[in-house]
Fold each of these.
Amino acid sequence: MRASAEGCETVHRILSYVNKEKRYFIPAMGALLLGIFLDMFNPYFLKLIIDRVIIAGESALLTKALAGFLAVTFGRVILGYLKEYGFDYGGQKVAVHLQADLFAHLQGLSFDFFDRTNTGELMSRLKDDVDQIRAAFTYVIMLSVENVIYFVSTTAILFALNWKLSLVALLLMPFIARIALRLEKEVGEICERISDQGAKINTTAQENIAGVRVVKAFGREQYEYRKFLQQNQENYGYKLKRARIWGRYFPQIEFLTNLSVILVTVVGGALVIGDDLSVGTLVAFSNYVTMLIWPMRMSGWLMNDLAEGLASVTKINQLFAAVPTVQEPAVPTILHDFKGHLVFDHVSYLRDGQVILEDISFEAPPGSTIAIMGVTGAGKTSLVNLIGRYYDYTSGAIYLDGVEIRKLPLQLLRRQVAMVMQDTFLFSATIEENIRFGGDDTLTREELEEALEQAALAEFIAELPQGLATVIGERGIGLSGGQKQRLALARALVKKSPILILDDATSNLDLETEYRIQQALEMLRGRTKIIIAHRISAVKNADEILILEQGRIVERGTHQQLLAFGKRYATIYRDQFQGIKTPEVKPYAY
């Protein structure tokens, strides 16, 4: 059996689940063993009927032998049910534990892991690979144990019946075992490729379905179909290769097992003719040989399924081996009353060796508003992502209320930050559920309605037939961009955290709605606000405006100060208010 070193940790994990659910597996194993024990009696009863009832004429034994057959049959039915139920139910519980632990592990990984890992691949690991492992560690292992016990038990009985004929029966078994091992090795290698390709197909399908409106808008249905067809063809090719491997080895196993039966029949017949063996013993021997051969025939199927399971174990273990790059502090500092005093002290951030932010320093006192502007790619979103430690800065330090954020427990730190992200994500749930997602169990109806007013949502929701109970589609399909942004803003407002980050959160709003929201935000006196925006109207009332360029602060000040400088900010102001009378500013040459 090929055991992957990479999968050892996951195997141990699965075995711990099996141990946890032993109340199902132990009775099932007991039923399996007892069922095998009963099976050993059927050929014996057949031997009695032939040798002593039919040939010797002891008709009184017929009733006892038939009663034995009947008892074994009913016993096997009951024990078979207990065995299948125990292993299947226990296997499902193991799969539940594995999926839950894997999901919890994924939840603990940092943003950069999800930046480089496709959603389709993760879905494949959580569903398909877990199902393969469940089958391998319940169905396959159950049958493997059963087959080994059958093999050992029947071998012992065969030697007790006739050792010469037993040697004939076992003559070809080493060759069958060698073929089965070669089959497992080759199938195992191709199964890993099939698992990888299955993840690619899931990723392609997931991306296409999620972006189906973009696909249709650009008339790219045929292009996407061809891309999916290509992935499917590659998957077909790998599975065809597996079928060829299977077709090459399994007939050899079939041939050798059938040849073993022929040899036993020929040699056994000669022994019967020579009066060295009774007819009943030969018939019983043939039945025991069938019990011996059946595990060898099944070895090919089991090796195939086991190879798929081991390939999935390797893939799952790769996920468990991933560690968050943002780590909890070794000796955490606990604060109980946060004010929202934020300080960036010469902060730099590199990603994959590339400078994203360099020497960023500013201070945001409690209740202040800091606005950040800059062209696309200037580093604005990266800057605010450092505040909640979604990514870790490379050098310098960020302080929250005088404590470096790396010394604060992650959950405690992130509870102090409410964020409206640039890419608005809403869940397929009711409007109320989406908004309450940002709060906690103590959120009152009054607080929820206050957030709706602040996000300029009250009128929109009042017009809906089902109001807050309205179910929105996947990712907010059916809502306008502005409505989604306002829902995301309300979700952030109910969090009641001392720091509120708005990453281009009003870009899709009309000027009137934006003005209403700005007025409401200015009333949030106790919350420190970090606002990323491209509109002058969204940042002009900030206590300080930072202009970023290539990851550096190239200009800073209040609205009036930056206009007086006559540089970048003033140029942006002039471009946005062309045709409107503005203060005299000098053009700035970049």
Amino acid sequence: MLFRLAFPRLGVALLAALLFLPALASAQQEVQGRFRVMIPDLFPGEDTGRGFGEDVAEELRDLINQLPTHEPVERNEIRDAMRQFDIDRDDLNCIRSRQLATQINAELVMCANYTEGRDDWSLADISFVSVASGETFTVDDFTVPDDDGDELAAAHIFQVFDGYIEQLRYAAICQEYFGSQQWANALQNCDQAIEGNPGSEGSRYARARAVMELGDREEGLAEMLRVLDLNPFNENALQFAGMLSAEFGMDEESLQYYSAYLELNPGNAAVRMNVAYELATAGNPRGAVTLIEAGIAMDDTNIDLWQQLGGFAFTAAGQAMEGQSEPTPEVEGFYRRAIEAYTRVFDARGAETTPAQLGNVINAYVQLGDPAAIDFAQRAVQVHPGAAALWSRLAEALRRNDRLEEAIAALESAKQADPDFPNLSARQGSWLLEADEVDEAVGFLKEAVERGEQPADMMANLLFGKAYNDGVQTTNWTYAISLLERTKSEFEVSENMSSQLNFWHGWSLYNHGLALQEPSTIDSARQSLPIFQQALRFFELGRAYAATVESINLAQILSATQTYVDIQDAIIRRGGGE
């Protein structure tokens, strides 16, 4: 009777490091030991004698003993162990065999069932199992004739096992290069391992990492998904699939993989926080918020989770705010969640909460226009009185709630906490200018220059902006003239800035002169003449600036101004005065 044999099928591959000697630095390194393979007598089916199973096992032990890489556990050793651990041979099955193999330091255990036909033997559920990992490769069910069936069965099983030796050697080298991060060599050997066994989970994962580390992130993701097809519970593949999906903007998929990963470690807060950090770093802080909130739902007393939630929620709010002029409902939701989270951290840890974290809370309140920012900031500076940044945040909150005097005082406290903190005097001066407290503002703007916060041109430009907006634009020429004169007298500015100030000073004088000369009387002429003359001087001093502004026709302006000088002079002469 002919064999009825199917082509051998490998299930989930054994870890190469468990099938072979420790991975070698070189493929040619000599083997220094042999792996122990426990082959118990095959398990007979109902109404089937034991003799065939005993004979097949013994034949297979002899065949495996020929291999340089593996050696069988002797039958007597197996039986001694069964007696030691009180295992009856009628109770021996694949699970108990694996347990027994652990006790006798066998790396692999072979299991098989058989039944007797009229003139043949049928073998089924044939597998070699890694004792350490539980990974298995299988041999397809087959049938052998009754005559010499034990030898034929053992030969077939050995042929299948021996046929994978070369492929698994590549798998071992693949894992070795993977472990030493020699990615190009790992890829080459993993490809050869997969060619012989496309269902090798370990080689697939190693290949996925290799192509990913070599720069092909897209193929790395595709290979990770192939690993998950083989084993949906491969934690490493789930984690990398989540990370790579996030890199490609596949936020929903990324969250799905990370969530599946965390289902395997639901109560491990450290793992959850690490995964959430990876997700946020890859560009999906919203997903990170979701993962951390799930952890808080399981344990809302874990302050580390609350702290991470606050950070991710702030990042998500900033991301959602991009391109928006005002906080959207989504942005507000993230800010509120961040505020809640860091408030919990502050309540629990007090001064251990960093000024940066507390500053973020104050800023969130300010962004939302919530006056609660003031109370929180006051509490924060009590805990960290030396944190200039917190005093600065408090000042901003006070100013936005129309408490300017207190805001200016808070910035003074920031100066005391850190004299080098940037732009404190400049902000004081700017805020006071906005409130029309010009005299006090000028003092702080000069102080900003003296403290090295800003160059003189920048502070002079703030005063010029005030003169232009509230004077020139509103045709309040006397106000513009007064503020421009003060700007020029208080600050030592560059030539360019001086030219700009002089031009607009001249322009303000010119327009002021136009208003004064309108009656065309001797008195109006006497009032306006020196103003036009002064305007001419400042226009000349403003030539460099005027030349940079296309809309300014300085020659025309000078001509008009000179005309008004001549007119006023003529009126005065006509009236008999010099």
Amino acid sequence: MEENYLPLFRKYRPQSFKDIVGQESLVRALSNAIELNRIANAYLFCGPRGTGKTSSARIFAKSLNCIHGPTLEPCQKCPSCVDITNATGLDVIEIDAASNRGIQDAKDLIAQVQYAPINGKYKIFIIDEVHMLSNDAFNALLKTFEEPPKNVIFILATTEPHKVLETIVSRCQRFDLRRITTGDIVKRLREISNLENIKITDDALYTIAKNVSGGLRDSLALLDQVSILGVREEIDKDLIEELLGKINIDVLLKLLNNIVNEDIENTLSCIEEIYSKGNEPRNLAENFIEFLRNVILVLSSKEFANIKNFTTLIDEDIEKINSYNFNKDKIIKILNTLIEYYKEIKVSTNPYLWMELACIASCRLDLINNKTPVQINTQTPPQNKNQKAIALDIQAPITKTIEPEKPRENIAQNVQTIKEIKPQINDEIAKNQDGAEIWLNVIQAIPSLPIKALYSGVAKLVKVENQKITLGFTHENALNQAKSPNKLDVLNSTVESLYPGFSVEFIKITPDTKVIELKPEIAPKPQYQPQKQSYIPQKEMQNSENDLKQETVKNDEKDEDNSNLNQEKKHYSQKVQDMIEQFSGRIIED
């Protein structure tokens, strides 16, 4: 009869100290304790999953209870060694704290402590995932841990030592197991692959080792998963990445190249192709972020060996990346943009749309992240000495505000100035700016980054005539997204705040449709340079007039002493400043 199949991580579980991989400090400490006969009453093994906590506890117990023990090399043949290997020993009891975590379980454990060992020299209790015990159970065990009966040893294992009571930790000798290095994992995997006749390349083993977070058990489980395929043909790096849900580097290079070249249509097609193969948007975003990080490392380092130590790339991958001659600064900007959108991709009910917007925003970094101030010049030469010329600067910081000497008189004067200038704004905008400048200013003033990416990346400017901005779309899906109320409302409010009286219409682009190319460096020069004055946008003009009038009436009823005048002066100055900052396009995003 054939033997039952054992997974590789169980078949090749360490059985002695010399088999433990990557935990030299722990092995040295326990070996010295055995040789010097300085065995403590309680031990605490901490560390990430798959690093050998339970295996080390079993080996320590086996070394103490072997018929030739205490010894550093258990015989593996005596009844104690065999029982511990099969986890059936009466003297070495393993307890799962996750399912035995209550006060009654702790009392049962204390009752067992009173019995003497049967076959070995020590009665050893291995409590796995000890952090799962309740506070009552911990407190019940305190006295037993501090003064256990003779020849009783507790070995606690946990992945979360911060959850163990400090009073328990203080009664134990603590050992922290580290993550196993990539080199040690690859070496062990190669040994087992040769023993099991698994055909696998070194690059594939390296890929396994880099993706298991330092856990040897996880790497053996993955090797076991692919071992069936390695019986007749060699397992390569691409197969491992496919099993791990990694996207091929050639596909990611193609996507990145389209983004760098600002080819939005091919970028969206590439995303659709990746999605159709079963990769979820979140998985694509995570893979792309990791890939961009690797690209930046390649562009920053000249030594292939250094790059391979910190990435899963092989020499061929590094050469491919270098052949594209990417600009490192631009790649960093793309990475930052993608990270911003990843926050929404993780929680959105429509992550595919957010992934598209992330790539569109990355394609149009020039428009979305353009730092050059784009000014709307609505100035006219002063027609008389009472009329004030007004300039509205979308992005330049407000550096000057009106400081009236007599608040009441200047408030009335400001209201009158607003009434005089209000009907002139639309006419002057039409005179001094072309359609590209108007649309570019609207794009930069849109407060929402995703909506800004949609209208700047997918929408094409067709014309601006008769106070109407016409936008075209090549894809029906993009047109429907642009017409959705939550996006259209933001666009309309932005246009209204910058160009009162203007509206927006959408059309489907045909082969005969002519579009206007946008240049982000557009910055119209003002025709006049009078002293810049504060301006209150029209959208809030009526409310401003009412508020100012009400404040004027109230002030008429108060005494005009110096302290009141100073308070009013600060109040009106701050109020005008706040309104300018709120409605002049300087919108601070979350």
Amino acid sequence: MENFKIIIFILVVLISLWAVIDKLKLPYPVLLVLVGLAIGIMPFVPELVLDPEVVFVVFLPPLLYYAASHTSWHDFKTNLRPISALGISLVFFSMTAVAITAHFFIPEFGWPLAFLLGAIVSPPDAVASSGLMKGLGLNKQVTTILEGESLVNDASALIAYRYALSAILTGTFVFWKAGLQFLWVAGGGIIIGLLVGYVLIFIHKRIDNYPIVETCLTLLTPFLSYLLAEDAHTSGILSVVSTGLVISWRAPEIFSYQTRMRTRIVWDTLVFLLNGFIFLLIGLQLPGILKHLSNYTLASLIGYGLLISFITIFIRILWIFASARFTNLFSWKQRKHRTSGSSAKKNDTWKNVLILSWTGSRGVISMATALALPLTMYDGQAFPQRYLVIFLCFVVIFITLVVQGFTLPHLIRKLKVSPVDNEAKEETELQLYVTVSTLHYIRNEYYPKPGKRIAEELIKKYEILAGKYLTEIRTHTRNESEETHEPISTITPMQEAQAEISKFQRQLLLKLHKEGKYSDAAIKLVERDMDINDLKLHQMLPKEQL
């Protein structure tokens, strides 16, 4: 009962914070960690320990699946080379650098323990990265590489973690066996994820007009993929990512519009709650960790934490710039069918590389793996330096999340990298393409032909839409090349009139509901139709008017 009260308390804090996050202009992971830390030091709050099993089984699968399902397979495949380099090579490079530093500068850190610490703090976090990048208008390729890296690097780090832990517990390590096992764990996870994805695609195709069932199945999908892979002793993380990418790729043909609308709302709400809990709980860990480190001075603890954090950040910057310079790892090319606007006029490659190197924030994976360290060895002795490893992990998370999170927007402004927001323009271009194609269909392919009056009304309707979209595209293009930005669109007299009529209808329906002249069932049906009409009107209104 006490734990349930704490959960309700965290929910209240989370919802309250979310109401002011946009006004504070802070990345939400940063704010939530800071608030969690502030709550954790309050004397009346009991010590809360983040259970690793809960993280790996309950939190991680849906968060990774959501991130993968919102990643474009086209973009992921195009940038597979830098994603693989960051998600695999950089993880092991960072792990080695941290291990060397810990072994020579932190007392009682043997090589196995040093490599264990390196494996824990080496992978940037998908959830943290997406939270820090939100609303910054980063280059699309930068965003794709960061999201892709965060999806695959966890598996590399967890496999390294597993072998470093085994070396500490058993005192033995065979390199070639670890290499073969890595191939099996990674490859097996991907294969199982793909199989689960295609089986679920087959099932979704056979389910028709049951959006509730399909929505429930999407909620089950990440857990099914993760547990099947883990039971086969392969990577559950790569399995979930593979399943998410496959289903995302086939989503337009397997989901009905009812299912898409329902799943979008359900998943957005679920991910909001999971993200909030995770980052608040990370902040709550510090007081409990410090209780077990009384034999260290605070200055030495902070010194060790800052040293490991510096190496973690520096190695990422060094490795990314070296890779970009000597191996041409990152080819910042625009797609031919997309307009690049002013970005094509100047070479921002080195700026994008710097931004990419400064966005390696650690998060839930690192904290969960640190907390998953056993309390004792096989012989019953205490696990060496367990709480120091957890503390160092917390400091790295705090520094990379809070410091880099605070400074990233300032770095972007300092580099004078103009926010890239081509999504609105691309959406309008797509709408124009669909509208023009529809006009061609009505004029040449619609069979049997509609009546002359109906055809004229349809053609007039879509010609007006085509003109509207063409005007918006021209405005987008002018805004890309000029410092002063014109409004993309303005509210029309008809839209303004529809908004006023909608308000009147809402008030009338509320009056009838209070008077009880009509049944609740009838009122809810009419209310649903009003909601749909208001949604359509909302999508048509200029963003400045919302």
